[in-house]
Every structure is written in structure tokens, then in C-alpha cells.
Specification:
- The chain is an alpha+beta fold and about 260 residues long.
- The chain has seven helices and 14 strands.
- The strands form three sheets. The protein has a six-stranded mixed beta sheet with strand order 3-4-2-1-14-13. Strands 5-6-7-8-12-9 form a six-stranded mixed beta sheet.
- Helix 3 packs parallel to helix 4 (about 175-185).
- The longest helix is centred in the middle third of the chain and has 24 residues, at about 120-140.
């Protein structure tokens, strides 16, 4: 099985790039984040022509996650249990979509950044990550093979960001954010990229500003976490930097994981 996660930073703007990437890499499942469109505006037919069924959780102009799959699946959840809408909103942001394939569950996610909205914005990020931890606990306790994949908006360690790329008080590297990520690992989940490349810089995001990609001044904030039985089947995990080097790219690159 080949699975990928990719924050596309506006799916309608990048539909051609995603199509070309799917044709070239042919993953069984692709998890998308930051769609920036409602479900009705998602280019579903463009991907159906390549054999992919889409499930979309959209939101106007912001957020949004989707699953593209060549394998049959069922939708299990369209939000993390226990979350409440932010003040003035009728529903929680479109950030979590959970599906069941034969013999495993995938949670596609786009965690809050946490740098906007002051103290309350950071609190909402931590609350969201706490809800993700609770969901992972529930699924792991039920002995369900689990993959959590997406943009976690956390750099887990200092090797996961270029020197000077972020201020020490940035929400992506604050101790509270990193502690939540470590908690997921302590539950028994395996960080697929770090399982095969334990040390050294790995980046999945490069800002558009100041030549960050050319200078390789990046961050690793896109992750694939595997439950124990799936971690035993891990044979490959890499970042497709070529997608970030394309014309008018997303500022994120796909993370691709292969299971035996």
C-alpha cells in the first residue's frame, strides 16, 4: 500500500499539479489539506478521471481536508469528537476526516497553526491536539490499525527546522506543542519518516518568502504516524521535494509512505 499526505494550499489552484502527481506516483490513497474551498467547488471529476474517489470536508476560503482513494472506503468521522465550535461559529473548522479501508483506519488532519488569535488561538491549537490524542487512544485501545496523516503544524525536534527558521516562541516549536506530538508517539504510534531517517534535517515545508526553498530553509510539519502493526510493515518513507520545485507550487511537499 502506498499512502501520501499533501498540504496543497488551494486545491483549485493546484488541480493540474495534483493530477500530474497522481498520474506519476499512483498512490493508493492521497490525503489533502488546506483545500480552501467548499465541497461543492472541489474538482472531484478531475480526480475521478484518474480512478480516485473523493471524500471532501470543505470550508470556504480556509482549511479543508479530503481523501482521494483508489481503494474502497467508508467515512467514520468528519470531526474530532469533543471539540466545540469557536466563538461565533456554527461548526468546528474542517480539519479532520476519518475513513476506514479494509483492515485499517486513516485519520486525515490539518491541525491549527496556533500563531494567530493570541493566547486564545494557541489554546485552541492545544485543545485540538488534545482531542486528536484522545481519538488516537480510543482507536488504539480498540486494536484498530491506524494511520494519522497530515499537516500537524508541529516541528517535533530541532532537526525538523532549519536554524533560525522560526522564533523560539513560535507555536510550531513551543514546548506545549511538541509535548502533544510526543504524547502521540508515547501511545505507540511511529513517526514514519523518522523511523527510517532517525537523525538529520528533513523538511516538508518551505516558505515562499526570501528564497527559503533554494536555501533549503524549511520545516518538517507534515507527518505520517503508524500504529504498531502498520509500523512493522513500513518499507519506505520520503518527502517528494520535486513537487515543491514545480512551477507555482504549494509551499508543502508530499510525504509518501509505502507499507509492505
Amino acid at each position: 500500500m502506498k499512502l501520501a499526505t499533501w498540504n496543497v494550499n488551494s486545491v483549485r489552484k493546484r488541480v493540474g499539479q495534483v493530477q500530474s502527481w497522481l498520474s506519476r506516483e499512483a498512490p493508493d490513497v492521497l490525503i489533502l489539506q488546506e483545500l480552501k474551498c467548499e465541497a461543492r467547488d472541489f474538482p472531484e471529476l478531475d480526480f475521478a478521471s484518474l480512478g480516485y474517489r473523493a471524500e471532501i470536508l470543505g470550508q470556504k476560503a480556509y482549511n479543508g481536508v479530503a481523501v482521494l482513494s483508489r481503494l474502497p472506503f467508508e467515512v467514520r468521522a468528519r470531526a474530532l469528537p469533543g471539540l466545540t465550535p469557536p466563538p461565533g461559529a456554527e461548526a468546528v473548522d474542517a480539519r479532520y476526516l476519518e475513513i476506514a479501508l479494509p483492515q485499517l483506519v486513516i485519520g486525515g488532519l490539518y491541525a491549527p497553526n496556533g500563531n494567530s488569535g493570541g493566547i486564545e488561538g494557541f489554546r485552541r491549537k492545544l485543545s485540538w491536539l488534545d482531542a486528536l490524542i484522545a481519538r488516537a487512544k480510543t482507536l488504539l485501545a480498540a486494536d484498530i490499525p491506524l494511520i494519522l496523516a497530515g499537516d500537524f503544524n508541529v516541528c517535533p525536534d530541532d532537526d525538523d527546522l532549519a536554524p533560525g527558521a522560526l522564533a523560539p516562541d513560535d507555536a510550531l516549536v513551543r514546548p506545549e506543542s511538541r509535548a502533544r506530538f510526543r504524547t502521540l508517539l508515547w501511545l505507540g504510534l511511529t513517526d514514519a519518516l523518522r523511523a527510517l531517517t532517525p537523525e538529520g534535517p528533513i523538511y516538508t515545508f518551505w516558505d515562499y518568502q526570501a528564497g527559503a526553498f533554494a536555501a533549503d530553509r524549511g520545516l518538517r510539519i507534515d507527518h505520517v504516524l503508524l500504529s504498531p502493526t502498520l509500523a512493522e510493515r513500513l518499507v519506505a518513507a520520503q518527502v517528494d521535494r520535486a513537487a515543491r520545485a514545480a512551477e507555482q507550487p504549494s509551499d508543502h511537499a508530499p510525504v509518501v509512505v509505502t507499507l509492505d
